[in-house]
Fold these 2 entries.
Entry 1:
Amino acid sequence: MTMSRRQALSLLGLGAALVAAPGCSLIPGRAAQPRLLTSTAALPGPFTVPLPIPKVAEPIRPGHYEFEQRETRMEILTGLSTPVWTYGGQFPGPTVRARSGEATTVRVINRLGVPTVLHLHGGHTPPEHDGFPTDLVQPGTARDYRFPLRQRAATLWYHDHRMDRTGLQVWRGLAGFFLVEDAEEAALPLPEGDRDIPLMICDRSFAEDGSMPYPAHPDRMGVLEAYMGGVLGDVILVNGAPWPELKVAGARYRLRLLNASNARVYELSLSNNARIVQIGSDGGLLTAPRPVDKIRLAPSERADVVVDFSGHRPGDHIELRNLAGEGRQAQIMRFTVDRDEPDDSRVPATLSRIERLDPRQAAVTREFRFTSGKTHHGTGWLINGKPFDPNRIDARPRLGDIEIWRISSDVTHPFHLHLVPFQVLSVGGEPVTATPEWKDTVEVRDNQVVEIITRFTGYRGRYVLHCHNLEHEDMVMMATFEVV
Ligand code: C2O
Ligand code: CU
């Protein structure tokens, strides 16, 4: 199937602006945009399967987890068997629930036949445990990743990070939730237990035999050039199930939304006048609840929200929709109220305190230009005109310093920084005046400049920054910084 440029753009919610201002991308028109891979399998109707809740991982002893990476088969589409790459036989992988300040070790045993890398996205992690893209776990070997977790409560996730192959290996299934909890958050009367639900949203496409094909390059980069703008699936999975349904009580729920897609951007909203109250972001709780109509999530962004179903009657359906999608990609999942339940949860007016980083204290301002350009293999995605080179250090922030980074784009790029969260200072020249929040990924939209501020804390060593459109990342849109 071919998609018109208009359709491709509207899938991303970009629309007319980009048509009017194609920017300075070296890649002409449609090739720069994510491209839909169309399923040939018969697809199920919406809301026919129950939402799976990924199992919470059982430690083998306190603070130690063991995940065997192996291929398994799962029935994702009814009647079809899909080969999936998993942590511990599950897709999504087991949910780790860990405590802030308590070191947690994840042992990865690689039985996949290809090298892997584990990265804890949003983790404040020493460099040797952060999953540098060339720091491989070879097939048939094991490795301990140690996470000190000296960081506040937040919805993190872990996923593969192998050099040139992250898009492929995440598409195959290598991703799971990692929830950090702390005393501050536990003291709040937020919904918890089975009313605290992680939702991993990602798109995939299915061949007739049930497999999830990926347009991989046979010998070098992860993805075919034709898909270098990003791979979009036409099936929306939530926790690994297509357009599922969750039966809920007429009560408050905390939903931890994660966009685990390779390249798709969502604008999530609820039908039936149901309200969304955002309470958290990539880096944990906001200072105060924020009522919103919709939530835009680029790849790897998270939003913690509370939805109150108590105004709805048993039998009512509330759909979670994607305003940035069309047709079936505009549907995500459905909540159906089927019971009453006592509910003493609430959303307090004050959630947390966040120090606002002061731009006047910045030691340096750095520029990072995210554009397409020439690589060793043809065209790819560059930062400051350079393809990723693991042996080159692109920035050397000093431990403890505050820095401002100015990130600019040609087409849209979700910028992600390892090691430390940041605050957004300005978007497209407009200062951000809202109360501060901690982010680890920010979408830099077409021809835009986003300024962030961060403080490099914790560990010296070598880390990456990159675009979290995984096809862009594999097509070398990554750079190295070393905290000195
Ligand atoms: Cu979600 Cu460098 O990764
Ligand atoms: Cu990008």
Entry 2:
Amino acid sequence: MFGTLDVAPADPILGLEEAFKRDPNPAKINLSVGVYRDAYGNTPVFRAVKRAEELILRNEISKTYLAIDGMPEYAAAVQALLFGPEHPLVTHQLAVTAHSPGGTGGLRVAADFLSKIRPNTTVWVSQPTWPNHPNVFRAAGLAVQTYPYFDAAGNRLDFDAMMAALANLPAGDAVVLHGSCHNPTGIDPTPEQWAHISSLLAERNLLPLVDFAYQGLANGIDVDATSIRTLWQPGREMIVVSSYSKNFGLYNERTGALTLVAATSSEAQAALSHIKTVVRTNYSNPPAHGAKIVTTILRTPELRSDWAAELGEMRARIRQMREKFVANLAALGVQRDFSFLLNQNGMFSFTGLSKAQVLRLRQEYAIYLVDSGRVNVAGMTEANLPLLCQAVAQML
Ligand code: LMR
């Protein structure tokens, strides 16, 4: 049975991680997978996470199963983080939240849920998007199509083209939006543009399916939620999949959530019952540790403010690396204007480097970017910047 199998292609992002680990070059630089690194190139555990873990270790008395949809305290904490504790959607119980194994797990549950209730849904993703998006939705049997997003010549959001495309989609389809820090371009809609997107989706009866993996890494924890808070209007339905890999540094704890918003509380509960059947036939019920950490931090004022402060430090460092990268390239006499990187959010940017240039960077300098030219700015450090900038300068 297995003897006839060809080797499957490596994952475009996590496959590079494996290749990077195998690379013997001591000067190698990893700018591929979206993982935050500090000035020393480490991915530290948040201070608040360590302290929450101490509390959990001390107080935990059982490892019995969680409910299929996870802990109610986690669901409440997630909803308050996404929308704010006093948001009408929260106080009127229009949202239900299922704890998922990471953001990817939440996306897959959303995909299986849509496939179950509306198998003919087409899922529309931005061009470009995170390369795993189409795979996850197709794996659930859904059709996937793209809408325009990025204007490569202007290094900006092609808002007119995006809106023109969305205006022509069939009612009932799902539109994947990135809540903040668009992956891979780093280019987000402005608050005014979010308002237009919100009205258009409502008018066309399209379901917003928001992938929100970077809350707090663009401009602030609440500011970054402008997207989802603007997309919601009374009576609207939407799905938000959030991840706590990056903003709590809980990558390998696989901590995420699927939050579904319905027009009424009873409709939300009915939807949750279907989400639970999807979960039960997939991973049965979620892992507890990461959710306990997030819940403990968000419910303990002292830990919460330390977490917010550390997240702010990360955000500032990423901005600083953007500035240094742009300034260093200019100082090396690179003609191409890279200042567009300064207007982008979060960990990622499109460098505009071609696939051939990306491959040369990998082969000749052991510098790892995703083939699309996406760079993880959060992987740059003061130590690796000189070599990186020289290599890019040479490439251009
Ligand atoms: C990325 O885009 O690099 C991250 O979201 C990690 C992943 O799973 O691909």
